[in-house]
Specification:
binds NADP nicotinamide-adenine-dinucleotide phosphate; alpha/beta; 116 residues; Rossmann fold; rod-shaped; four-stranded parallel β-sheet; 34% helix
């Protein structure tokens, strides 16, 4: 049994493919940006197709992409690139080059130096 994930599998195309692949004996993960929407889609397929949907699950797109061996994009064409791209990291601010304030890093003033 191959694990097949469908990102954005909540539309007519993705859910139809999911149902056919699952009925054909594959393990299918229906993904969505909203895991609750994926769950609702899967529940609908199980209610409609019964025991033939024995190996279908729902999850977020990110979790589906992690779990599946084969990933299919079921989104609209415009959304494919963004959906297939890794999530953008939030950049942390650059650490300051200035040392933290405190006595230890202050240069001694000329007047506090001992005479040569
Ligand atoms: N429907 C058909 O009969 C049919 C036939 C042949 C080919 N196709 C092709 O198959 C593809 C999907 O068709 P469809 O009718 O199933 O499309 P759809 O219902 O309009 O969209 C499918 C899924 O794409 C996700 N999506 C939409 N906008 C998105 C965005 N901006 N970012 C990320 N995800 C987004 C949504 O999933 P979530 O909201 O759950 O994330 C949505 O449920 C299209 O390219 C279409 O041309 C469709």
């Amino acid at each position: 049994m191959v694990k097949i994930g469908i990102l954005g599998g909540t539309g007519p195309a993705g859910s139809g493919l999911a149902a056919r692949l699952c009925a054909g004996g594959q393990k299918v993960y229906v993904g969505s940006r909203d895991p609750l929407k994926a769950e609702t889609t899967v529940r609908g397929l199980v209610e409609r197709w019964g025991a033939r949907m024995a190996h279908i699950e729902s999850a977020s797109n990110a979790d589906v992409a992690e779990t599946a061996e084969i990933v299919v994009l079921g989104t609209t064409a415009r959304a494919t690139v963004a959906t297939a791209s890794p999530p953008r990291r939030v950049r942390s601010p650059r650490p300051s080059r200035r040392p933290p304030p405190g006595r230890w890093w202050r240069r001694p003033s000329i007047t506090s130096r001992p005479p040569p």
